[in-house]
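Below sits our specimen:

——
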Amino acid sequence: MAKVFARLDESLREFIAAQAMFFVATAPSAEGRINLSPKGYRDTFAILDDRTVAYLDLFGSGAETIAHLRDNGRITVMFCSFTRQSRILRLYGTGRVVRPDDAEFGRVASCFDGEHPGVRSAVVIDVERIADACGFAVPYYELVGERPVLDDYHATVTEEKFARRIAGDNGRSIDGLPALEPDHPLPRQSS
């Protein structure tokens, strides 16, 4: 039932492109909470090459993924089909945070089709293992559409409020690991 792949071939790329969401899982090195986050907006995920992927990291209620990546880099991305084609695909790898003030950010950001307000970073993942599973017990769901709420909200947030978020709930993980620094650059607002 399960298969391991050497690279992100065309069939895997098509499967990934067809998914409306993905999930990101990380954990700290020492004792602490495992984090599992759903991610939406199809245009926030990009395949950079056969073994490298990235996603745009939008401001959220915390910064667990960033803190865990700073701690140990371990990350798993999961795509799950809710259509008649049952399949789960996991990408296991090592991730790193590319901030808007990093020289690499422009190159990575150019790999995404859309723009979103409230981008705090891009997460680039060197994929070490690619494996699928059957997904036979995953229920069927019909996609109604993408939820615009986060983009709509971020479009109203001032740069000062984003700066306060960096110093506040995005500054440390819930276990106290450092995430964003207060001098982190402000997110790039799309026009």
